[in-house]
Amino acid sequence: MTNNLRKVSQDLRAFAKRTKDFKYTDSALITFLMTGVVSITSNLFSAPTDKSIENQKQEISSSIKGMHQKVRETRRENNKLLKDTNLELIQLMEQGDHVVKSPWSSWQFGMNYMYNDWHGHYKGRGDKEEKYPYEGIFERSSNVYERTVSPDSDKYSLLSKTRGLKSATGSAGNYGIASTKVVKEPIVGFEVNAGITPRQVQKGAITIPAKQATTPQTPTPVNFSPVAPNVPTINTVPVNITAVALTPFWNSNRQTKLGKNFSINDNNTYTLNTGDLGLCSPSCPSGENAAHAILEITDTGEYSIGKNVTFVVNATGERALSFDPIENTKSLNYSKFTNNGKIILNATNTAGMELTTQENGINVTGINNGTINGELDRQSAFTFTQEQNPTGTYTAINETGGTISLTGNTSTGFGFYVKSPGWVVKAINKGNVTMAGNTSYGIGLSTKATLPGGGTANNNVAAGSVFQNASGGIMNISGDNSGGIAVQKQADPSRALTVENSGGGTINVSGENSFGMYSELHQNVTNAGDINITGSKNNSIGLRNNNIDNDANSSMTNTGNINISSTGNTNIGLYTSNGTVINTGKVNVTAGKNVGMVVYGTGKGKNESGAEINVTSSDVSQGVVTKGTGSFTNKGKITLNSAGNGSVGVIVGNATPMESGTLDSTNGEIDITVTGNKSIGTFSNGNLTLGKTNVVANDGAVNFFEGKNTSSTTTFATGKNSTAKTGQGSLLFYSDGGKFNIAGKLTADVAGGSDVNSRGTAFYYTAPSHYASFNSGDITTWANSIFNGSLKNLTLNMDKGSRLFVASDVGMNLSDTTGDSVSKATGANIQGTGYKTFMLYKSKLTINQNVNLDDDNDALNQLEIANSSIDNNNSQTITGTKTGLVALAQENKAHTNRADVTINNYGTVNLSGAKSTGMYAKYGILNNDTTGKITMGDSSTAIYGKDDSIVTNKGVVTIGSNSTGLYSEDTDQAITNDGTITSSGNNSIGVSYKPKAISAAGTDMLKNTGTITMTGDKNVGLYATEGAAATYNVLNAGTITMGDSASLSNPNVAIYTDNANHTLTNGGTVTVGKNSIGLYGYTSDNSGNVTVGNGGIGIYSQGGNVNLTGGTITTGSNEAVGVYTVGSGQNITNNGTTFNLGDNSFGFVNVGSGNTITSTISNIGLGNNSVYVYSNDTKGTVTNNTAISSTGNQNYGLYSAGTVNNNATINLSNGKGNVGIYSVGGGTATNNSSIIVGESDSKNNLFSMRQTILR
After folding, report:
1. Which of 180, 485, 690, 780 is the most exposed place for a label (fewest CB within 10 A)?
2. Pairing, β 1031-1036 against β 474-477
3. Which domain holds residue 12?
4. Picking from 13-17, 106-110, 185-189, 383-387, which range would have the lowest pLDDT averaged per residue?
5. pTM for this predicted structure
6. CA R_g for the chain
């Protein structure tokens, strides 16, 4: 609001105060301003509630605002036009004489009057000296390069701005506020480097697609290889029983903690510590005042401690209770003590209850009906100590409610020191005994007892002594090298003792190298209860008889049950190596790699009538094993049904070292089912006689196996009927030298299959000499020798697809493989049709007749041959037109004799069908000999080797498109072409090598010493691929000729590798057509001759060094290149290879980075438009020690963007437009010799120059 308007408002307000009927409002003010009249009576604008008045106010306000906005826009546009007009005038003046009149005065008069007052200088006045520091003539730069940089060039901005005021060059000379962007003057044509045409090599991306040989339909190798069983090695641990050695003390001196001859039934704990004094103190005899026990019983009668009483022994060499009845005040003949409480042993060499002998004939009985616990080494719950010559019976009983738990090592539940003349001792367990320490025994009677003061004495218990785990008694043996009941040889072995695990008694063994019962006695020891071998440990035995005196009466008998459920190895039910073990009960093996019974050495084993040995483990297990001069007799039943591969029902003797054995089951029964190619029904390397027998072999197992012992015989007993089932992939009979005698009747069913591995087979024939003949006469001789002429008692039920023979190490002609003369020669009663007569295995087949692979009935198609050698005679032809045929193919098992599979082609193989293979071997030897000819169709492979096969071609191989001549993969053996390989097709390979990770630096693993000719497109002569960790050489010492290629982007290549670890070496002749490549790879050595066609490349290297040591490199025209390098840090050296360059070609082209080219040959001649060394590598170096000459025009000696050192004469005097050294891209060139160029031809723009630098 302006001051005038405020004055009107104030006046109108004053008027309203003075006038009663007038009220001031904004409406009244506006009305007064518009009309000059104040209405008092009926003022339309005075009513504040009249909406029409409000609407008029808004319209007026909007109109006023709109007028103000239009005024502002007009002013802004006018100022802009004035500014642009002034600027245009200034710019016109600065550009020249387009404006003569100074603009400053015109600025003062826009419309011939002063339209504003700036209160100071007008804009643009007073800054002329600052904005236009120089008024005069500008000067051109004296630098020709600065003058010739186009304003459009991105380099123009690099010209310095800090130039003189007169400089007309660059962007420093702005003139006032006008734009000074340089307007290009019309281009005036002139020649800077007349006649010099910069060279540029552009080969584009070169891609060699991966090529893979066609994989043949390979034969199925035979996995069958009969292996003699692994006879378990039993490493028994010596039994060392160490009883507690306690020193007797004088009873009359009362050297105990509590006294003697009374019972205790309180709730107290009584402790014996080291240094405690006896009750005699302080009046004890000198040196005899220590307490040696808590309580002593020296009288007859019955005594006990109650269930709440605890005895604790903390003193080494002492006992809780001493039983020494020297008194008989009650006139009784017995003395008994019962522990109903708890005895705790906390020291080594301690005992719970000690029974000491006297001469008064009193019978002493110590009973534990409570608990005896110990955790330290060398402790005994009960110990027998001899003090005087006894006359009574001394009995220690762990009663039904008694518990003994000793966890320390070298401890015994019942221990003994009983010397001559011997006395009756009885150790009986009816309760629970746990021995958790190593070398510990539940009941342990040793040969010698350790004396308290050191040394030993013989134990010699009297006849009638008892060592028994009675009915209800349980012994838990969890320590290693431990046992339940162990009784060693006594001083008088003739005394009859009772040693048994009674019926209802149980011994549980879970330790390593432990046992249930052990005996060295000259008598029988019996298990009538249960012995359980549990857990997962190894080499434990139920009954172990160690007849150290070789006494005929030494035996152990199982009349109860021995159960092996341990998942460990070589746990055995009954074992002896020098005594006798007898089973009249049951032996059950249900888990682990364990054995029912084992008899070694001079031992004897018996499975009596009604007895059973049952092996049903799913792991590798054996029923009965016997070897040595001993024997085993079976009158009961031996059953083995195991799925473990390597299981054997019966083993007689040993293969390595060779040992015999004897097992007679004439009057017994054997039922065996085995599975897997390492499993055997019965194995004999001694004398095995079978009565009623049934053997089932599945999945590659052998029913009956005879070892190498030629004196060994498996006899089917006269008058006995046996049966066998030979499943798929399994074998009925196998002999490695031993014999079979079917004196009884044997009926065998042989299962059929669909291929060489799935067929069941009756016989395995091994030739008497390497590659001996195999005909009907040979079969008759073999049958009489191996089967003693007894095959007439054999009935063979041959299923369709089964097989009569596997013939090993024989030699046969193809013409002799047909007919049924072989089957008739066996003499067996053969039933069935549709079975195969034989398969050649590890044998040799000679193809002596033509073969038509299209005919399914051809002799070769009908023959089964595996893991064998094949010779195709030089007069025979193998033909086929179907797709996917394989002429000669075999597979071998790795790490056997590679020569077992040797395939030689001396004849002709002609397979025109696609995806076919001429020769194939896995871990074998493949040889196409000098007379051999192999012709293959498209997408095929002539010779295919894998898995360390040796592949060689000496003959002629012809292949079609997408095919391979020689191929070897996954190998560490070399592959060699010493013959001829030809192809007129496309996308094929002469020799392809794909090794495993070998390290053979400097070794020629892929070799061509023959001739390879491939006239099609996109082919490779030698193809070395993969093997990322493989290091080896690829060598051409022969001749490789490749045809023209349609494009260099996917060309023919003579020698190729895609791996920097493979060195390409050419010492022979390589000739490739246009747009083709001689050597393509990394490190390359050439001492031979390389010829490339127009646009081709002699050596293409992506990395590594290139060494040219001899021979020649000859190029065509059209930018052909001798050596083309694209890697980094490469050294390219020519000190022996002569270059013959065609017109418009290059000797060396380097487009890599940091590469060094060195030439030291004597001279090189250039024709027309050629370059000896071309390098666009700005970090590279070219060192030339080679004289360069020319015979034509427009050549370059050395052309480089990096460093050039020339040390030899460059004489390009013949020809026009030649350049000695041409440096580009900021490179530097040093000439240390002479450069001679010829005349120039200005008319044709051919200018010769010694050295040119183009920045």
Report:
1. 180
2. unpaired
3. 3-49
4. 106-110
5. 0.70
6. 57
